[in-house]
Design a protein that fits this description.
Elements: H1 2-11, E1 18-22, E2 25-32, E3 35-42, E4 49-52, H2 56-63, H3 83-93, E5 99-101, E6 109-112, E7 121-128, E8 133-140, E9 143-150, E10 154-156
Parallel strand pairs: 2-5
Antiparallel strand pairs: 1-4, 2-3, 6-7, 6-10, 7-8, 8-9
């Protein structure tokens, strides 16, 4: 939709009325198959921000772009975002460190894939997103003991 709108803006010579088209995203570290990779995740899936002068012509270009289905607002016209709202969204997009997304949660069974406890299974006791660490309760010698590991050192057990 963003590409369609930008193409229409250029072909209809509307750059003097429609300035920017933004899909709000943030970087996120995804851990899959023991690999870390950085992905861009949409902050508001399905939404696109358009900075423009609201005229009949610019409104026509945006609302008749393929992929545009509706607008945030009441009635026939979109409601503009407040400056503070826009600044908050842009600041969120420029976040310093990417968030880490893990595929397990507290209370879930996991298997340790690296380190001295390789192949042990345990239960997630706590997740520390700031440090990229997870505390797992592992049972050995008949007792449960907490083990702190990196996100990469564990994998979710499939139920």
């Amino acid at each position: 939709m963003k590409q369609n709108l930008e193409h229409r803006i250029d072909s209809m010579e509307m750059r003097n009325q429609i300035f920017r088209v933004i899909v709000p995203t943030e970087e996120e570290i995804e851990i899959k198959n023991g690999q870390r990779r950085t992905v861009n995740k949409k902050i508001y899936p399905g939404y696109v921000l358009v900075q423009m002068h609201m005229t009949d012509d610019s409104w026509y270009v945006v609302r008749n772009t393929p992929g545009v289905t509706s607008f945030v607002g009441h009635g026939n016209r979109p409601t503009p975002l407040e400056d503070d709202e826009v600044k908050t969204i842009l600041k969120q997009m420029e976040g310093e460190a990417p968030k880490v997304r893990v595929s397990y949660q507290k209370g879930q069974a996991v298997k340790i894939t690296d380190g001295p406890f390789t192949d042990f299974e345990g239960i997630v006791d706590a997740i520390d997103h700031e440090r990229g660490r997870v505390r797992v309760l592992v049972s050995f010698f008949g007792r449960e003991a907490p083990v702190e590991l990196d996100f990469l050192q564990v994998t979710r057990l499939v139920d």
